[in-house]
Design a protein that fits this description.
Layout: H1 2-7, E1 11-14, H2 25-42, E2 45-48, H3 53-58, H4 62-65, H5 80-91, H6 103-113, H7 117-134, H8 141-146, H9 153-156
Parallel strand pairs: 1-2
């Protein structure tokens, strides 16, 4: 708390808020009370991210829930914004050779990720790891179009 005050934190960003629901009722109360305490004591804004269950997690504390305005991020569409997102990620991926993808690869990428931002990042990260392991050091159309997601064993047995 002293460090946050000393450096002048104005916004606390909390990701994966839906994971609060994994705890017992008592543990959930502790986390939500901590959020409210930090917000009050430090006079900072809280920004929380998560899947749809994040709303449920925050709604466990009515006073805290009133402080949030909820936004739903739309899935990406086949447009310039999606192309710009992918180009930006590729530009910032630490590979030795530049990665440029064709419109066909971008459409396939959009389809396989279902337009979900986290899936787009996961796909590109996987391709970047593969590019380093193969020594290619770039993400190319062939790699994108041959990429297949790893089988999620937990989902397979759910």
């Amino acid at each position: 708390m002293r460090i946050m005050e000393a450096i002048g934190v104005q916004v606390l960003v909390i990701d994966e808020v839906h994971n609060i629901l994994a705890g017992s009722y008592r543990e959930q109360r502790v986390v939500l009370n901590t959020f409210r305490f930090l917000s009050n004591r430090l006079q900072i804004s809280l920004v929380c991210f998560g899947v749809n269950e994040a709303r449920e997690a925050i709604s466990g504390d009515v006073q805290l829930a009133r402080r949030f305005e909820q936004f739903t991020l739309n899935r990406w569409a086949a447009d310039e914004q999606f192309e710009s997102l992918v180009a930006s990620i590729l530009r910032n991926t630490p590979l030795r050779n530049p990665s440029v993808l064709s419109p066909k690869s971008l459409r396939w990428m959009l389809q396989v990720t279902e337009g979900i931002t986290a899936n787009v990042f996961h796909l590109i990260n996987s391709l970047a790891v593969e590019a380093v392991e193969t020594g290619r050091e770039q993400i190319c159309d062939e790699a994108v179009e041959s990429w297949r997601p790893e089988l999620d064993m937990e989902a397979a047995f759910a």
